[in-house]
Amino acid sequence: MEENEILPGISAFGLALWVEKNKALVIGDLHLGIEEMFNKKGVMVPRFNFLAIKKHLLDRVFSKAKPKIIVINGDLKHEFGTVSGQEWSETIDMLRFLQRHCKRLVLVKGNHDTILGPIAKWENLKIEKEGILLPKSRVFVTHGEKVPKGEGFKKAKTVVIGHEHPSVKIRDRHKEEKFKCFLAGKFKEKKLVVMPSLNFVSIGSDVRSNETMSPFLENGVKNFNVFAVADKIYNFGKLKDLD
Fold it and tell me: Range of 91's domain?
């Protein structure tokens, strides 16, 4: 297995997932516009997430992968009940940026995407409510806040979810560091990959100490393999074996 391979034929390029058979790139949980939400609450967070995402994709992803299809796996924008000025501008710019790097762009609906419709309509994009099956690899991409019921999901051998924003704390005698991470395990008879967020305002939720949210993870993640994202992808083995 190559050092960035999460499962056979499925690799991590930075915070994105590459499905080789379909030449498909999966990203998710960008939460564009999150800084404006903080600013409205009086928290002076500089607006850097959009530019950091673009730089990460150019440096860590598009320099290595030339996708035919890009799947945005939910939570493209942050606000639940409105489209803020920052969100409208950044989401349109991001969609156009991604379309320049693929032949087909797919939007999977996330729990934050309650009113993504006007943005998708503006760019003539369809929103996949449950997710999408990548047929050659039989990988089903879904956001993860609920378990799909459709035929595409039933046919899948592997499921890719976001929603959890997983990270992991690594400790030694003198310090600890927190890294975004991928998780690889099983959901019933299917293989399961949990993706980190492509969002630079927050590292995410520590899988060693925090409860999970997704029904895909209702039995816990102790037996999942952990792949930390730093200067490269580090395979730390099973979560339960980390000291």
Answer: 5-241
- Is the distance from CB of 198 to CB of 53 less than 8 angstroms? yes
H or E element: which one contains 51? helix 49-56
Number of domains in the chain: 1
List the CATH number of the domain containing 148. Answer: 3.60.21.10
In the chain, the DSSP E strands lie at 5-7, 10-13, 16-19, 24-27, 69-73, 104-108, 127-128, 132-134, 139-141, 158-161, 166-171, 176-187, 190-194, 205-206, 225-229, 233-238
Q: Is 231 helix (H, G, I), strand (E, B) or coil?
A: coil
Residue tagged 């690889």 (tokens): 184
The beta strand positions in 76-188, using DSSP E, are 104-108, 127-128, 132-134, 139-141, 158-161, 166-171, 176-187
pTM equals 0.92
Q: Quick: pLDDT tens for 180-229.
A: 999 999 999 999 999 999 999 889 999 988 789 999 999 999 999 999 99
For β-strands 24-27 and 69-73, DSSP reports them as parallel
Which among 241, 198, 243 has a CA at the least distance from the CA of 221? Answer: 241
pLDDT of 35 over the 70 cut: no
Give ∠ CA 70-145-114 in degrees, rounded to 5. Answer: 75
